[in-house]
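Researcher: For the record, we're logging two predictions in this thread. I'll number them. Prediction 1 follows.
Model: Prediction 1, sequence and structure:
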Amino acid sequence: MRSARNSRGGKVGVCGIRTSWNTIGDGEFFCEECGGDRNYRRRTGRRRFAVLGIPVLPRGCTGPVVECAACHTHFGVEVLERPTTARFSAMLRDGVHTVALALLCAGGTDSRAVLDRAVSAVRAAGYADCTAVQLVDLVEALAADTGRFMPEVNPEGTLLAIEIHEALEPLTPHLAPSGRESILLDAARIALADGAYSPNEMEVLGTVGNALGLAPDDTVRLIASARKVP
């Protein structure tokens, strides 16, 4: 923008490009600049050539952009693909809960040690009020629908495996590699709470590793390493 000095020595804009913004939507997102969840405005703009602050000639459109309502930083709309802190916490909580139920379906609920380990994992993920009774009731409800169990002839085609993928795949891109490994290790420790892995538990753990985007060799390594932890 070209400028000139006024009688007081200050600069005044003579000509340049000005953008007028129009809000087309709003919501909540994770602002990287603020470092937390904030409200946003989704905006489009019209660029105009202005002389002495007066718009004269149109110069096309710009945007859409996402503007933080707090710091007013502009971001590309792809920033909305990142979940808010609250949404991420809910995704993690639901993912761990689904994995715990899958392992209880595969290995049974007779072992108190397994139940205690599952409750501990689910509580740590965010379900602070989770109890063993609640998990057993859910497993029994799932048992009533036999299609949710993993039949030995075709475990990949079961609804239970599908639910694991549906719970973990949206979460996976937002987890660091150590976070993905941690979920699988916690799942393995649930299965090991009453002794060695059963074939069905191994099947579930393999599905979990796949849903987390872990390489097959890494999944095998982590499942084996869980045996070495007291």
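Researcher: Logged. Prediction 2.
Model: Prediction 2, sequence and structure:
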Amino acid sequence: MNNNDIFKKLRVALQLRDDQIVEILELVDFRMSKGEIGNLFRNEDHPNFMVCGDQVLRNFLNGLVIHLRGTKESPKNAMDVIKQNQETVKKNITDRPSQSVGTEFKPKTEFKPKPKTDFKKKPFNPKDKKQAPKVQVVEKVQYKNGKNKKS
């Protein structure tokens, strides 16, 4: 697991947006643009992918501590900050207009469950099973070990 994976998981777990990450990094006087942060979260195959160095992750974690706990002069409760972030995310989701207004998902065909039948399975009985006739393979094999035998 590399630094990019750790950074992505923290971002998702704390529901942080790119602008919030920029603010967190500025708390420890570390400046990165939104574009650079976006490049950290890209797929490794993408041409603009950027490896997250130790310095970036260290400064983000230090800034995250200040963001969640506050400073000694003005301490904060971390859970209050997280709940506040969750409320803003929920508000943004409800404020966003839905992309498909007035359209509902309708399947092409209606699902109709099969009618239930009251078949009871019979218990397995090995005697009821038809036995295939056994063919003895050994009798059909001809052994040829290089000698002509006369019988």
